[in-house]
Design goal:
The complex is a heterodimer of chains A (340) and B (272). Chain A is built from seven helices and 15 strands. Chain A has 340 residues and is α+β, with helices and mostly antiparallel strands. Chain A folds into two domains: 125 residues, no CATH class; 199 residues, no CATH class. In chain A, strands 1, 2, 6, 7, 8, 14 and 15 form a seven-stranded antiparallel β-sheet that branches. In chain A, helix 5 runs antiparallel to helix 6. Helix content of chain B is 76%, strand content 0%. Chain B has 272 residues and is mostly helical. Chain B has two domains: 117 residues; 140 residues. Chain B contains eight helices and no strands. The chains are: A alpha+beta (340), B mainly alpha (272). The interface between A and B is large, with 56 and 52 residues.
Amino acid sequence: MHQSALIRLAAPLASLRLTAAAMAALFATVFLAYALTLADSGWIVPPLVVLALNLCAAIMVNRRIRGSPGLIAFHVALLAICLLAGAGILTRMHGRVEVVEGTAFDPSEVQIVEQGIWRNVDVPRSAFVQGPVEVDFTSGLLRQHTRSSVAVPLDGGMPESELSDTHPLKIAGYRFSPTSNKGYALLLTWRDDAGGETTGAVHMPSFPALEWKQEQGWRTPAGEDVLFTLKPPLRPAGEASWTLRGDGAAAEVAVILQDRPTILRPGEWQRLRGGALRLESVRLWLGYRIDREPLIGWMLLVAILGIAGLSLHFYRRLWSPATRSRADEEGDAHPVVARG
Amino acid sequence: MHIPSWLAAEKFWVDAGIALIVLAAVAALVSYRIPAARRLALAGALPLAIVMLLAGLALRWQQSGQGPFLTLYEVLISNVFTLGLFLLLACALVPSARAAAQVALPVLALFALWALSTSRDVTPLPPTFDNPWLWAHVLAGKLFLGACLVSTALALRLCVTRTSAWIQDVQTRELDATVWRFAGLAFVFESLMLVAGAAWANDAWGRYWGWDPLETWAFLTWLSLGIVLHARLAWRLPQRLAWAGMCVVFVFAVLTFFGVPFFSVAPHKGVI
């Protein structure tokens, strides 16, 4: 009884004309959002909701869909992809972080770009230690391959692996992908007047994207503002290919204090108010994108199954010799109308 | 300016292939009046053109060390090659598809002549292109465009030939069925292209969908084909309207393949 009432309710919603109209509305909203460069994609939600309801109803009552295993697989897959995409928005996380050669990844430095409401970020602490970084460039400063060596704590050991643009590091469901963002970092030790020492890194702007502006401000623990400028190691001029490496020894670092620059070489100290600053070394930092998409594998599987269903349907409906001859006799799904 | 010898050799093979494609197109066009010319187009000029384009593309690939995926010249020439091959196979395997040649070959000739006006320089592939999903994406895209070309060529031919007189016959019914057979095939391959592209985007840029111009246009093309397939059944559209719908889908496909990637500032964010 309940089932037949549900089917009676669903029947008008399952209309194929509604499908075509809602698809046309989706087309119009996507096109308008694109043409008007609207940042808000909320316009596409109403036609998507209508399509989802129409799809649910059609799966329940449409005899053509229910009678074709391929067609039902495709339409159920479409619905599942919509649901998985929605759930994915609630559970995913995207972030970024910069890690300096020779230092361990620190989750407190992760900058969250996007985060679902159903998941706390629990990126593992010291997930890896950053090793040497190399980035190839070809003529015209076109970036080619990035190689990032990392050591990952595993079963008491620290096996090394090499990451690249197409080979990310996967840890605890998170994916760390090297990005095009990289630059030099100054490893500095601050010793206060009481003798206490702290070591940390100041990241210079992205290199070579901002090669012309290699300066970074920093406030000492004693509250004094200093400005670091970096003259990167020379790279081949003109059209030659070259590789960016962390050979920071060839870089020249200047500490600018009240407009007076002082050149600082690795191992040298600079006296400042309330303490002294020592340049340990100049290294490279590499930017990583951190992604967590727990449902993406399921989405891919469902999409492939849906396309397999669609292929089966079209084969049986349009390509199989048996149905082709029957369609020819019946005039296919679309009767030919004779006109005078 | 010094031109490497391999680039000169590539130019020879590709230009010869383009000349043969143009010859095939002319033969296909005159086959309305001289039926034997279709044989010259499909059995002579087109297969030879495909072999020559293959030689040119293989040489470019071998010398530059990268596939023809990036520049407008590479995309046009590789598509003229794959579309020509698809058309040849379709004509060989589905006799009713042979009628598509009269429209499809002139379209291929236009793409080939367009390629002559583009730069042949080699641009290094971005590192994000080094991904197996790219191969699946490109292959599915070429198969989609091939099926869409055959379907649209038949649809356009039916539209044009029916303007003066409406003759109900078995041949028309067969051609109409073939339009929708290839439209169905195009829908399958475009769905595959979108899925493989999403998997590539996820690997390359950490998101499977970002509404960038190319993704948006590819989705609009998929949606337009879905609308035509659904509307044809839902409203039992007059045949000419349904065929015109396929032509509109092809226009969207051409804009997606040859327009948006080369006239948009950032077709795929992260590529550049």
